[in-house]
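Justification of computing resources. Each target in the renewal requires a structure prediction run like the one illustrated here; the chain below, 84 residues long, is used simply to show the kind of job we budget for.
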Amino acid sequence: MTMALIPPTLGDVGLILWGEAWGDPMAVSLNLSDEEQKACEDDPDNIPAGTEARLLKLCVIPSQEIGMIHDVPHAAGLRRTPAD
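Resulting structure tokens:
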């Protein structure tokens, strides 16, 4: 049996990065017009050229920040212990 991965939709990525009200913040961040945003939501094949690369750059920064939140305290010797 072969399983194919289903690529995330623009809405999936928007939800992860900006939460429930992702549409407008994503459009602003990606410099999309209202028409482009709506077209992207309706049909992923309508995503303007270069949008995917800009979106990937937006994803890298939060993932680096999340890594820092985890790694810096650990590197400093801080340990989290459960509250009693």
